[in-house]
From TrEMBL, chains B, D:
This is Dihydroxyacetone kinase subunit L. GO terms for molecular function: kinase activity. InterPro entries: DhaK_L_YcgS (IPR012737), DhaL_dom (IPR004007), DhaL_dom_sf (IPR036117), Dihydroxyacetone_Kinase (IPR050861). Residues 7-206 form the DhaL domain. Pfam families: Dak2 (PF02734). Coiled coil: none annotated. Keywords: Kinase, Transferase. It comes from the Bacteria. It comes from Barrientosiimonas endolithica.
């Protein structure tokens, strides 16, 4: 398997669109969208994010991209509430959400481990 | 409230929900000025869910009530205030443990723990124009009051300090949260989260004084 | 009026979602999505982008955010094919598309001119 | 083609469209290895639209035909190759101006202009593993051939050079375009845009030799 990816956004459309884009370059990577407040509105959802983290986790780790500060707060909360053994292999990445997700997905597709995937996302500037 | 037991705590929480209903338009208005205009709606959604859960099954200790509030807000609020208030209630719940009733010192300590939780979660300092600007002075006031006051005294002191401090967020420039996108333009508006914190503490004080 | 914004993405969902997010903090700014290949697929559309540029242009300038290099190529093409007088007040910004768009929208909402809006987008790192 | 006039140019363009139909699966396959797997589909969409426009109203000069190809590809391809090939055809169109027929020198100059257009648009250099790796050697070969050859000689030289060069993109590491996301992993695969450039030039050479 490979490292999975979760895209957390305040907008369901953004999260799903990013997954769509990234999956084109990384068809075999587990990419999961966690966008919106879970009831059709703009916002983030602790429950959606928690479920996405589980879904993306193949055992090889999960890189998490997010759009805005409040998405970060909700995601950190979700990591804290999860089993520590599991939370340990789930890393929130400080990177531009679209550009970072694509770079991370490509790195994961290439068999990169969690730290390589995280590094790829961090370096993403969108100048390709 | 006659001895701050589980029932009194639950009643106080219902009172908080009521307060949010009353003020949500104003909170949303504040958030429209320096944010995305959803703070009132976020808290209404959260506290309505809390009341539903209390109606369905009211927990047996103050700590369990606070924990229910925490997990419900975390799951339902949908904005930054969800994990922030959620963490606050969670830390308060942990602090009071499984005590059957809360005394003034415990309430004050729970408030401190709540504020520490918000800082740990959001990394804001006093002066960043966030709910911390209301929380911190409230904690200070509560600690002084707890030295010889009742639970009602502690909460009255906290509420008064938070109200004052919330209004004093207006001249600040936001350095955390969405409002920080506005830079200087955030000056001149009260921070929505500081204001809701003040309302929540006022509501607790009212409950504790027996009037709620 | 204020500076307008165009969000160019390979995904219609991403472009529309970004506009949705940014409009929450900038309800009076003209924000236009130009996502997808124009026929439901992933890609960019010269025609969609050209139309979006006109739609976003109030006369005070347009800041353009894009997701990937090929979106940049198509957008540059659209600028080159437009009337030079008009093209001059339309600036492509090198910034993360989601984070940059929100920062730009907030700056435009506050009455910032084109260069201030562009600067706000460039500085956006998403750490708010 | 008997004197490279508008009709011959249009016929050559139709031949390019045919070539793309034949090779699109392979191009898509190449793009799946180091890109997003749409290069074949992108070009098919673009060239089908071109043929439709030619069917509807065939322009009266070679330059006008090239311009039609340019604007149609730009509007319909949907990927990086749209503005790149679009710019190539646009620059070629500008170079040939309103000449009624094209001679070997003009064809060679048009190819140079096309390659310069691609460089101006995409900022890639030789060795970056892009269509430029096929274009540049093609231009060099065309220029030599134009010194004393026919249009057919120029295009044959260009096609042969591009074919060779396209296959030599395999060992390169991509530094431009989507494939650059793959870094080292792009090594070992032929660049789709270099390959399609070779096919397009081969198709032109075939047309010019009278066999197309
Ligand atoms: N990092 C932070 N630390 C403390 N408080 C914060 C932080 N970020 C935001 N806040 C508070 O949250 C309030 C906004 O809450 P809300 O509108 O519900 O969330 P959002 O900004 O996600 O829409 C702000 O007014 C501020 O008081
Ligand atoms: N900056 C560039 N300069 C030159 N050629 C490029 C550049 N970017 C991409 N290409 C070419 O475009 C080809 C990919 O085209 P295509 O798949 O249609 O577009 P996309 O990458 O947008 O999906 C690449 O194989 C490469 O030859
Ligand atoms: Mg808000
Ligand atoms: Mg919000
Ligand atoms: Mg492609
Ligand atoms: Mg593509």
């Amino acid at each position: 398997m490979s490292v999975g990816l979760v895209v957390v956004s305040h907008s369901a459309q953004v999260a799903e669109g990013v997954v769509e884009l990234a999956s084109q370059m990384a068809p075999s990577v587990r990419l999961v969208a966690a966008g919106g407040d879970g009831s059709g509105g703009v916002g983030t959802s602790f429950d959606l994010i928690s479920a996405a983290l589980d879904e993306a986790d193949t055992g090889d780790g999960v890189a998490i991209l997010y759009d805005l500060g409040s998405a970060l707060l909700t995601t950190e909360m979700a990591l804290e509430m999860a089993d520590p053994d599991v939370a340990e292999r789930r890393v929130i990445v400080e990177a531009p959400v679209v550009e970072g997700a694509i770079a991370a997905a490509v790195a994961a597709e290439g068999g990169g481990g969690l730290s390589a995937v995280v590094a790829a996302a961090r370096e993403a500037g969108g100048d390709a | 409230m006659a001895g701050c037991d589980a029932a009194a705590t639950a009643a106080a929480v219902r009172q908080m929900a009521e307060t949010i209903e009353q003020h949500h338009t104003e909170l949303t208005h504040l958030d429209r000025e320096i944010g995305d205009g959803d703070h009132g709606a976020n808290l209404v959604r959260g506290f309505r869910a809390v009341v539903e859960k209390l109606d369905a099954d009211e927990p047996g200790t103050p700590g369990a009530v606070l924990k229910l509030v925490a997990t419900t807000l975390i799951s339902t609020v949908g904005g930054a205030s969800g994990p922030l208030f959620g963490t606050a209630f969670l830390r308060a719940a942990t602090k009071v443990g499984d005590a059957e009733t809360l005394d003034a010192a415990t309430v004050s300590d729970a408030l401190s723990a709540a504020a520490e939780g918000v800082v740990a979660r959001g990394k804001a300092a006093v002066g960043d124009k966030t709910m911390i600007d209301a929380f911190e002075p409230a904690v200070q006031a509560a600690q002084s009051a707890a030295e010889e006051g009742s639970v009602a005294d502690v909460l009255e002191a906290a509420a008064a300090a938070a109200e004052q401090a919330a209004s004093e967020t207006a001249p600040l420039e936001a350095r955390k949260g969405r409002a920080s996108y506005l830079g200087e333009r955030s000056v001149g508006h009260v921070d929505p989260g500081a204001q809701s914190t003040a309302y929540l503490l006022r509501s607790l004080a009212t409950s504790a004084s027996g009037a709620g």
